[in-house]
Amino acid sequence: MRESGEKLQKGLIRRFIPYYRPHLKLFVTDIIFAAAISAFNLIYPYITGEIIDNYVPNGMMNWLLASACALLVFYIVKAGLNYFLQYWGHMVGVRIQKTLRSELFDHLEKMPLSFFDENKTGVLMSRLTNDLFEISELAHHGPEDVLLSAVTLIGAIAIMFTYDVWLALILLALVPLILLYTIFMRKRFVDVYAEMRVVQGEINSDVESAVSGIRVARAYTAEAHEKQKFEKGNEAFAKCKSKQYKVMGQYYASMKFLLDFMNFAVIIAGGIFFFNGRIEAGVFSAFIMYVTTFSNPISTLTTIYEQIQQGLTGFSRFCSIMDRPTEPEEPDAKDCGRLKGDIAFENVSFSYKNDDSATRVISGFDCAIPAGKTVALVGPSGAGKTTLCHLIPRFYETDGGRITIDGADVRTMTKKSLRENIGIVQQDVFLFNGSIRENIAYGNFEASDEQIAEAAKRADIHEYISSLPQGYDTPVGERGVRLSGGQKQRIAIARAFLKNPPILILDEATSALDNATEVAIQNSLNELSEGRTTIVVAHRLSTIKNADEIIVLTPGGIAERGTHEQLMALNGIYKGLYDYQFKNC
């Protein structure tokens, strides 16, 4: 088990090293300067010993002053090197973090929607922020501190051996104890940091959910419930953190004791050697200072060990996402250009897949939608209406059968070119945290201001936007919180007008609106649908009476299909739904 963990860590390190290549010059300079600082750290005890044993007793004032000046120069140079390490050294980590964040964000943008069905937003946010910060710290401090400590350790040991072999051996005899204890604690560190990452991701997810749903919580006076749920996660976080600090406390306390015992052993042994005339006072003083110089890198290595565990844990979580496959794209897929919109479902089946099971939603669905026609999908929730709409732009892949547009299988088309031909207006309109102009421009980022305004006019929202103090530059707030439901819906319609796609999907586009707003927006939707192949998912049957065909879906498949008049004449499911909705009218 330990071997597999070590192999995993070695594999992660090998995978991480290439991220240094674009910053190699800066990184190498940082390492060289770190080595120089280590060398300077070794000079001070040596000069101190020389001053005590030679320069002061023998009245060598010139050498004393020269040594003092040399030390001052070394300290000034060392200050400059430390500035470089603190600023440019950290910048190496920041630049690597920037690269990792860009790669991760780009990869997330290409992930299939099923991935986001399985993963919480807060957990993904933790990967983009906390994990990458720990990796950045490791990228900077890891190699730098390890090299600085190694040079200092090796240099201090070498110099101490030149002073007195036996005193140096006494000191080195304690080093294996430190190494053995570090190895013993390694597994505990790995486990506790991995657990910490999971708990931190969960609490981030709870906070993100609570903040996003604050209005719902207020409306249902559920603040106490949300507080209770948060406190449960917060308690788990505190317990996990307590476990982490307990392991850290045991490790650091033990390490500190071992390092202090080094000083104790050297002082006792060195004192005995001095009284026996084996070593001189200056050598004894220098040796004590070298013990401190020797101990500092060991303390640094114990600290960097924690940082290495945190960084590798974060990088492991980063790799776990990067190793997940992105949306599949057939190697021979081609740009489909501008489509006419002749859609056909041929024996289409689809299941939502969980970790160990699958839920069949659509089975053997057949339907043809001629270009320019409007087809409405109605029926109970869970019948697969929205799922069918998601299969057309290949948000999900079919389990069986195929979907064709203009006679060509959608899998032969690149996803980008396919989706450029499809406009979607949904019930839950998502507006990005930006301006009204930016949100409408999602329909076509190359559109001019005049084209954006024209799309807003056709969606009947231009006058409202123009009345705002900032006009089209008005911020919509997070998820469009500063706008009403009808205003958000019209911006979504303006997006679709700007995109001007041959295929239009209206997924419960007006069901969340009041009747007066629905009637007003329905006129805009009718204009938007003209000349396009339109698929409408609706619960309000008044909005689809004029559809060219209405398909009644149930969990068992297609139950009825035809025009409004034909379905009413059947006196079946559709007529029952229609009569129920209008029984009080």
Helix content: 55-70%
What is the count of DSSP helices, taking H or I runs of 4+ residues?
19
* Outline type: elongated
Q: Helix/strand-derived class? A: alpha/beta
List low-pLDDT spans: none
Question: In what order do the strands lie side by side in the largest sheet?
Answer: 6-7-8-3-9-10
Terminus-to-terminus distance = 71 Å
Q: Hey, roughly how much beta strand do the residues contain?
A: 5-15%
Instruction: Describe the sheet with the most strands.
Output: 6 strands, mixed
Number of strands: 10
What integer is the average pLDDT? 81
Order of helices and strands: HHHHHHHHHHEEEHEEHEHHHHEHEEEHH
**Rg, nearest Å:** 35 Å
Describe this structure in words.
- Helix content is 63%, strand content 11%.
- It is α/β, with parallel strands linked by helices.
- Helix 17 (515-529) links the parallel strand 7 and strand 8.
- Helix 2 runs antiparallel to helix 3 and helix 7 packs parallel to helix 10.
- The mean pLDDT is 81.
Index terms:
single chain; 585 residues; alpha/beta; six-stranded mixed beta sheet; four-stranded antiparallel beta sheet; 19 helices; 63% helix; 11% strand
SSE layout:
Blueprint: H1 2-16, H2 24-55, H3 61-109, H4 113-118, H5 121-163, H6 165-172, H7 175-212, H8 214-219, H9 223-275, H10 281-322, E1 343-353, E2 358-369, E3 374-378, H11 385-391, E4 400-405, E5 408-409, H12 415-419, E6 422-426, H13 436-440, H14 449-458, H15 462-467, H16 485-499, E7 503-507, H17 515-529, E8 533-537, E9 549-554, E10 557-562, H18 564-570, H19 573-581
Parallel strand pairs: 3-8, 3-9, 6-7, 7-8
Antiparallel strand pairs: 1-2, 1-4, 4-5, 9-10
Helix pairs in contact: 2-3, 2-5, 2-10, 3-5, 5-6, 5-7, 5-10, 7-9, 7-10, 9-10, 14-16, 16-17, 18-19
